[in-house]
Amino acid sequence: MSIPRFAKSSFSKALWTAYNFYRNGISFHSQLSQVDALNDSDRETIISYQRNRLRQLILHAYQTTSYYRELLKTDSQDISQIPPLEKETIKEQSADLCSESFSPKQRIKNATGGSTGSPLTFYQDRNYWNQRNLSVYYFDRWAGWDFGQSQLIIWGALADLKDNGNWKQKLNHFWRNQFWLNGFQLTDSEMYNAYKKMEKLKPETILAYPSSLFQFAKFLSENELKPTCSLRGIISSAEMLHPHYRTLSENVFNTKIYNRYGGREVGLIAMECAEGRMHINCRDIYLEIDSEQPYKTPGDILVTQLNNYAMPFIRYRIGDIGLLSDEVCPCGNLLPVLKELLGRSTATFKTKNGELVHGGYFTQQFYDLDGVIQFQLIQETFEQCVLKIVINQQWTENTSNYLIQKIQDALGSDVSVNVEFVDEIALPKSGKREFTISKVA
């Protein structure tokens, strides 16, 4: 016998409250109100808070970590003295980056999925997680989510799915009022089952990998399956949200996508508002663009996580390229805006002339192209690319010529494109589909 929808939502909301009281203490509602007040305040208040938190973090890092103590030499809180923190540095000097004020038992181990090469292991503290959750709660409400509401999650990270199916995970999904579609197993039968669950459980929001969301939307569209639930919004996260992903998914599900940008290393970095601008999470993050003109010329995104004192990440080169905006968003929120998020630095191609070509250029050439099921373009050198492709019966030689021409238009007429026909393009361990990979940029 199924639980009535209203009763299930009320039950789940009560358990969410209990969970947050356990994690944050009885002042949870007060803390959440403080988060709301800061993020909804004027720009001067937001930036003043952020700079104060930044000074505190740098001082803590100098006083309690051998890495920053050796790097800074003095207790100055000037962030410009600190060079960007590279992934290789974290791997090589992990122990020196950990704060001496936290015992090994107080450190919470975490790791990336390794979408840019090999997995990265790091440590966080309980306060980081509490503050991260508070910020996620604030921004996800922009997309219509709230405690206790039914939610469909389409995800593919091994760290999140390794226990999927056991009784603890099932209980966790039940009290959170969530049901999952495994992004690693997007078979027709699994997607049809997810559609039937949507019709029964009537989720109010979806949280999804963009590529998995697109595949699900494409399956529903091709099979003329129209969801009847009234979604408040869709939260996309963990991958690039390409324009054709957004267009099809918003049409199929008849709601808006709110794109969320973040990473396991630093938490939520920015989120899209109803006006389509991506606002930076200044309460938790200090964000820089590694460019002489960060408002005009894109550059590597450097992230300082303001709450993780167990293993401070200061000016961390997260591996993405972006551009800042000095506009005031029409939505009324005064958090600064990340004008463009151009994707992984490893997905951005580079020509012999030094010009950068965003990976999205190439993905657009494949959208709705007859004969193509899957593809992956790899820039091996300035002169050579490999195009791995899965085709169907609609594939023609003209399609091949068209794609080679488009690649050469962007990278140079002398670039050799080797087309490899394969049966399948395997997902990396991270679960994030890599359509473009540059070994040059």
Low-confidence stretches: none
Shape summary:
globular
CATH superfamily annotation of the largest domain: ANL, N-terminal domain
* Gap from first CA to last CA: 57 Å
The CATH architecture term of the largest domain is 3-Layer(aba) Sandwich
Task: Give a quick account of the main beta sheet: strands, pairing sense, barrel closure.
Answer: 11 strands, mixed
> Whole-number radius of gyration?
23 Å
What proportion of the residues is helical, as a percent range?
25-40%
Q: How many structural domains can be distinguished in the coordinates?
A: 2
* Count of individual beta strands: 19
The proportion of residues in beta strands is: 15-25%
Polypeptide structure, described:
By secondary structure, the protein is α/β, with parallel strands linked by helices. The protein folds into two domains: 5-344, 3-Layer(aba) Sandwich (Rossmann fold), CATH 3.40.50; 348-438, 2-Layer Sandwich (GMP Synthetase, Chain A, domain 3), CATH 3.30.300.30. Helix content is 37%, strand content 23%. The strands form four sheets. The protein has an eleven-stranded mixed beta sheet with strand order 4-3-5-6-7-8-9-13-12-11-10, sandwiched between helices. Strands 18-17-16-19 form a four-stranded mixed beta sheet, covered by helices on one side. Strands 1-2 form a two-stranded antiparallel sheet. A hairpin with a 5-residue loop joins β14 (349-350) and β15. α11 crosses α12 (243-253). The longest helix has 22 residues, at 43-64. The protein is globular and about 65 Å long. The termini are far apart. The model has no long low-confidence stretch (mean pLDDT 90).
